[in-house]
Write a structure and sequence with these properties.
- The complex is a heterodimer.
- Chain A is an alpha/beta fold.
- In chain A, helix 7 links the parallel strand 7 and strand 8.
- Chain A is globular and about 55 Å long.
- In chain B, helix 3 packs antiparallel against helix 8 and helix 7 packs antiparallel against helix 8.
- Chain B is mainly alpha-helical.
- Chain B has ten helices and no strands.
Chain lengths: 252, 307
């Protein structure tokens, strides 16, 4: 494994008094796809949202431990969260396009960064939509409302919107859980394409999905990291009994 | 066991009849009020009545006009809206987007808003006189006009400010509801793209909440247009020879004119047509103010879905 892009060390996390993560230590490899798997409530989404500090929005939640991005502690008081989120993009479980045009959705992040030239915006919107494998379907309706797209298209639009600001890391929180199998297949294909450009971390309930798209897998149970490593090895030869029980469907 | 109904369901029937009758009663009262006003007021309607002034005799049904009152009412509602919308929206944004939901301060503010909504309107009138006219107006006069009387007197601007204070709770509560209805996922999407909280509020949350905010403004206007008590000490006049020339002048008002005609008239029976005419105009004006706001909101909603 190359020098990790994210290094999570002894991370503990609380929602008020309820602890959600216990001493989690896991490295994230650059330009690879890492899957977080585990039963509901195991803390995988919480951990994902720690990586772009989305949990800051939750009152009374707090983290202890260390999360470094290229060796820089992202929880240090000097860190600009806005800058962090530009470098660590996110795609949510429920697709959440803005009720604006397709174009304005993809251009949103760029505009907040001060890009105003229409030519630049047009280029970036097109290349992002192409990367998200959505361009051919929407190129004639860039100025129609994004809420008119199908569920799968909306989710790909959210991916295009996230990659338009050219982040280094793309966090995906169960991006296919609300999609039909065809749309899911498209997104999975897309994830494998995007791996060339971005570090991808995906939370998923779907074991086959984790096996198909990821290079590394981390298995969580009740807020603890049980096992992590090469996806092939985790799925064929897990070291821990709990992991084996989960991936063979004995619980979860 | 049989599925056939054995006896009549008396309690169910009684409930249906009872609730239906209650609804009918409300509709009936509304119909009586509107019918009475329209029936008696229509006779007084004429261009001269609507566009005429008061100088020819305020209590003469053949010569009285109510344009100064229409003008004053519209000006008051307009200024009130300018005052209440920014303050109400800003407060709602603070409460819903920035304040910690469970903190003691937030709870105190919410309790204060709810209590403000329950304060009788005449108390707002006294508050306006003490605070806006004497304290704020007096302060301006002392600071800028070395004590000469410019602002420390009942005026259109103070009446509008008092009315804005009265309608503030309605505006805040409606705006907060509109903000709360904006899906949390949209805020997260914006923040996750590296937008600041301010950008998120202005580019995502407020545009989404705009129709709801306008609903708040409509409610505030509806409340404000018909209120008389808050302006009694703060700016309305019994009789003025001229239209107000600026916001520091006093003004005449349809609602107050109704009060004047029904209590101060030299001959109530003779001036009754003016009274009904004025009430009809006040109703129509309130209706039109509401209608225009509803139309603007509908236009915004339509634009949002299509564009």
């Amino acid at each position: 494994m190359d020098e990790p892009i994210f290094q999570i060390r002894d991370l503990n996390f609380w929602y008020g008094k309820a602890q959600a993560l216990y001493d989690v230590t896991v490295p994230i490899a650059p330009k690879r796809t890492t899957a977080f798997i585990g039963p509901s409530g195991c803390g995988k989404t919480t951990l994902l949202r720690c990586l772009n500090r989305m949990n800051d929005l939750i009152e009374h939640a707090h983290a202890e431990g260390e999360v470094t991005l290229h060796g820089q502690d992202i929880y240090a008081p000097t860190v600009d969260v806005v800058e962090l989120r530009k470098r660590v993009g996110m795609v949510f479980q429920k697709s959440n396009p803005f009720p604006k045009s397709v174009f304005d959705n993809v251009a949103y992040g760029l505009r907040t960064q001060g890009v105003t030239k229409l030519g630049v915006l047009e280029d970036r919107v097109e290349s992002s939509l192409r990367r998200a494998a959505l361009w051919d379907e929407v190129k004639d309706r860039l100025d129609t409302n994004a809420l008119g797209l199908s569920g799968g298209q909306q989710q790909r639009l959210c991916i295009a919107r996230a990659i338009a600001v050219e982040p280094e890391v793309l966090l995906m929180d169960e991006p296919c859980s609300a999609l039909d199998p065809i749309a899911t297949a498209k997104i999975e294909e897309l994830i494998q394409d995007l791996e060339r450009f971005y570090t991808i971390i995906i939370v998923t309930h779907n074991m086959q999905q984790a096996a198909r798209v990821s290079d590394f897998t981390a298995f969580f149970y009740l807020g603890k990291l049980i096992e992590s490593g090469d996806t092939k090895r985790i799925f064929t030869n897990p070291a821990m009994k709990q992991t084996e029980d989960y991936i063979t469907g004995r619980f979860g | 066991m049989t599925l056939r109904r054995k006896t009549l369901d008396w309690s169910g029937l009684a409930f249906t009849v009872g609730t239906g009758a209650a609804t009918l009663l409300i509709l009936l009262m509304l119909a009586i009020v509107l019918g009475n006003v329209i029936w008696n007021g229509a006779a007084q309607m004429s261009l001269r009545f609507i566009f005429g002034g008061t100088s020819e005799g305020m209590f003469d049904p053949q010569r009285a006009g109510i344009f100064p009152m229409i003008f004053g009412t519209v000006a008051l509602v307009f200024l009130m809206t300018i005052g209440v919308v920014p303050v109400g929206v800003a407060t709602a944004i603070y409460l819903n987007e920035y304040a910690r939901k469970q903190s003691a301060l937030t709870r105190v503010i919410r309790a204060a808003i709810n209590n403000l909504a329950g304060v009788p309107s005449i108390v707002f009138g006294l508050f306006g006189l003490g605070f806006f006219v004497q304290f704020v107006g007096g302060g301006i006069d002392r600071l800028l006009f070395s004590g000469h009387l410019h602002y420390a007197k009942p005026a259109l601007v103070w009446a509008a400010a008092t009315m804005a204070a009265l309608t503030l709770p309605v505006m805040i509560v409606a705006t907060e509801e509109a903000l709360r209805a904006v899906p949390h996922g949209l805020r997260e999407a914006s923040l996750a793209l590296g937008a600041t909280k301010l950008e998120t509020v202005f580019k995502v949350v407020l545009p989404q909440a705009l129709p709801g905010i306008l609903t708040g403004a409509i409610l505030a206007i509806g409340r404000g247009a018909g209120e008389v008590a808050p302006i009694m000490f703060t700016g309305v006049a019994y009789y003025l020879a001229h239209l107000p020339k600026g916001v520091t002048d006093q003004f005449m008002h349809l609602g107050y004119h109704v009060f004047v005609l029904s209590t101060q008239s030299p001959d109530i029976a003779r001036t009754e047509p003016i009274l009904f005419g004025t009430v009809l105009v006040l109703l129509v004006l309130t209706f039109l103010l509401n209608l225009s706001a509803v139309l603007v909101r509908a236009h915004l909603r339509a634009g949002r879905v299509a564009g």
